[in-house]
Amino acid sequence: MNGYNDPYDICEGVPSVEVFRRLRTDAGLSDKTSEAVALALPNTWYGVVLRHEGEPIGMGRIIGDGGTALQIVDICVHPAHQGRGLGKRIMAALTGELERRAPATAYVSLIADGPARFLYEKFGFADTAGHGSIGMYRLMNGS
Q: Could you tell me the pTM of the whole model?
């Protein structure tokens, strides 16, 4: 996948609302309403879109206040392109930007679904439960 014949490239930025929703659902993540996505995307601290021959097939974002708290979200790659190290490329782009711009004292978190934890561990992320804290969440629709 290296060299001139690499059909994949990563571009800074975020996808359109429609592409964001498609990328999430194609990868098996939960859908979000167009209204929610339209509110969210402009608040991205840093984002990347992974393209295959120009077509968006993956993405990743960092959200947060840019100083004390940041969270990696929306990491996904279309199933037809998984298993090729593309998630690692997305994470490398995101963590590279964190290393460039985030303050040394920033708390960077993410939620690892299933085996994705093994990818995130390669980038220095560790379970919070072993450090006296535990990740928690609440969905606004009560589910």
A: 0.89
Domain count of the fold of the chain:
1
- Single out the residue of 21, 68, 72 nearest to residue 46, CA to CA: 72
Which CATH number goes with the domain that contains 79?
3.40.630.30
Cα 8 to chain centroid distance, Å, stands at 17
Q: Give the dihedral sign, CA 57/83/40/18.
A: positive
What span, in angstroms and rounded, lies between the C-alpha atoms of 73 and 69? 13
Host H or E run for residue 88: helix 86-101
Query: What would the pLDDT profile of 2-12 be if each residue is shown by its tens digit?
Result: 457 899 999 99
Q: Which domain holds residue 39?
A: 8-131
